[in-house]
Each structure stands twice: as C-alpha cells, then as structure tokens.
Amino acid sequence: KVRGIPKPYKFSLGTKSVVEARRKRDDLLKEIDIHWQILKTDTLQIEESMLFGEVAKRWSEIVRTKVEETTFENYRKVMNAHVLPRFGNTPIDSMTSLDIETFISKLECKSKTKQNILTPFRLIMKFAKKHEIIPSNPFIDVDPIKKTKNEQKRPLSLEEIRPFIDALNPYWRPLFILLFFSGVRIAEASALKWKRVDLKNGVVKIRRNLVRGKGGKLIYKAPKTESSIRDVKLPEFVIEALREQRKRTWKGDGD
Predict the structure, then answer these.
(1) Computed over its alpha carbons, how large is the radius of gyration of the chain?
(2) Ramachandran region, residue 161 (left: φ > 0; alpha: ψ -120 to 50; beta: rest)
(3) Tell me, what DSSP letter sits at residue 135?
C-alpha cells in the first residue's frame, strides 16, 4: 500500500543493474514489514496502471471505425452486460488467465453466447498487448469454448418446415421457401434484385448484403469474402415460388 494513492501502481526502480534493483526491492519490502506501507515515494518512478475499462474505451473508439455498425453494437451490448461489470475497474495488467476462466465458468449461457461475449474481450486484451499496455496476453492460456453435443445445430425437418410455410402470409411465403431450400442468407435475400434472379435457368446471383450502417440506416454492402459471391442453383419448386413473388413485386425496371 502507498499512502495517498487510491489505485494500484507499478514502481520503476530507476536502475538497469539487477543487483541494485534487488537491493532496492529488499529495502522496500523491509519498509512494508515495519510500517505496513511505503512511506517515501519521492525516489520511485510511479507508473499508474490502466484500468481495463479505460483500455476498452480506447479500443472501442478505434474499432468502431473498422467494423460494421451491427458488429460494433453487438460488441457494445455484451461488453456492457457481462465483461465491464466484472473487470471495468480492474487494473488490466493484474488480470490473469485464472480470472478470465473463472469469469467464463460463471456465465450462465450456452457456448455460442459465451463465444460472442469473449470475442470483444479477446480483442481488447490483444489490443492491450499490441500497444504494450500489458506485457503478455492472458487469453493465450485460456481454453477455447467447446460446444456440447446437445448444442449442435440441427436443421429443421420437412415435417417441421411444412406447417410453418403453410401458416405464413402468402406475400412472405416465397421468401421463406427461398431461405429454407437454397442456403441463401437473410441479408443476401434482402439485397436481391430481380435483375439478379434468372428464372429461366433457375439461378440467383448473390452479389450484395443488406445491412444496417451507422445510425441504423439500411445499406447495401459487398460480401466480406469472395466465396460469398456466388450463383445459387435453385430447385424447381423454389423457382415457382419466386415466379409468384415476381408477379407481386416486379416493376419492370430490373429491380
């Protein structure tokens, strides 16, 4: 404990000699044994340790300019709900892999949600190591989250899909037939224009996603990976569903 200093501090002993550093360390330990604190700090170079919350704020200001708004919002939500209440006021250089694994063990959620919580947490610690705020990243020694067998994704059966499709408003039925039986993602389907739907050859051309940008505004974005830019061959019954939808929505301008 250092008198008058409310937050944890690191001390630089101001010497390059290992022998001299050990001597100074031993003198300080004796002082602590006698007085329960260090009385004289004028000869020490005191370096204030940054709190995890402070580092997280700096990271967020930078990462916000690099990721989609929806991604950043997901990061913000899980950090505010789970990570910052536990580690926000903790000196970041005092955090250990044991602290993190203990935190993970107390999360009462499925493995997928745990992974979502840990994603920005990992990125912040990586950021801190990159910029020499911490000497090493404790996440290196943290075991990865593993899915349990009962959490494996199970696709719906035809018996489960059929009553759902039948219950839909006819306007939305073609969309869900496309989603269920083509592998096209919702953001890709939302961005589809009729000029990219080849009913004759039974193909939809995936070229863009419809996502939320800054301020919540919907914008068209190119897929993140080249493999996502693709032509998807459709079964005949899906083509028929799209023909029905085309009758309702096509304006004759290609869109």
Answers:
(1) 28
(2) alpha
(3) S
Contact 69, 212 (CB under 8 A): yes
The model carries a pTM of 0.58
Q: Are 225 and 232 in contact (CB under 8 A)?
A: no
| Closest C-alpha among 69, 65, 126, 67 to residue 92 | 126
Q: How many CB atoms lie within 10 A of CB 231?
A: 12
- Tell how strand 230-233 and strand 203-206 pair up: antiparallel
Amino acid (one-letter) located at 172: W
What type of residue is 48? E
- 51 neighbors 133 (Cβ within 8 angstroms): no
Q: State pLDDT tens for residues 100-154.
A: 999 999 999 999 999 999 999 999 999 999 999 999 999 999 998 887 666 566 7
SS3 at position 209: strand
Strand partners, 230: 206
